[in-house]
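[09:14] KT: can someone run the structure on this one? pasting the chain below
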Amino acid sequence: MASSSASSGGDFLSKKSDLNQLRKGLPPLQSVLIVEDENIDADRLAATLRVMFGYDLEIRRAATLGSAVDRVLEKKPQLLFLDDVLKPSDEAGQTIPFLRRAEYTGPIVVVSGRATRKRRVELLAAGATDVIHKDDVDSVRLAEALVRVFGTSAKSA
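[09:31] RB: done, structure tokens below
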């Protein structure tokens, strides 16, 4: 048991180092919008982004679909993180079209507590750029998602 624990920690650090190298090929990230109705989840995501990008990154938040649309209309973020289920009953599949109608054309990463393969396919078909599980909100998983989102320039770095 101890060897698997040590192995996974080493694997994590190795992967984090590799992803930090890949991240150098990403476009400079200056503005992010987090659409999340649970403060603890929004705080966790924001803190992880701060660890990755520092305090120069502008992080704005919205807890409802209406406030998210307002934030997008005020200033388009480079990247939007969207909770899969906003209380009381808004799901990302229905929320994404409203954000697109607000002329947000950038990437949308859905953060879902129920990110199964089937749900991922549904969200990507609805217009999400990527989907990550809420349990996977750490610097390694976010870096992997950003490499997928911003793609080819990061892969060639």
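[09:33] KT: thanks! Residues 1-6, 152-157 have pLDDT under 50 and may be disordered.
[09:34] RB: yep, looked fine to me
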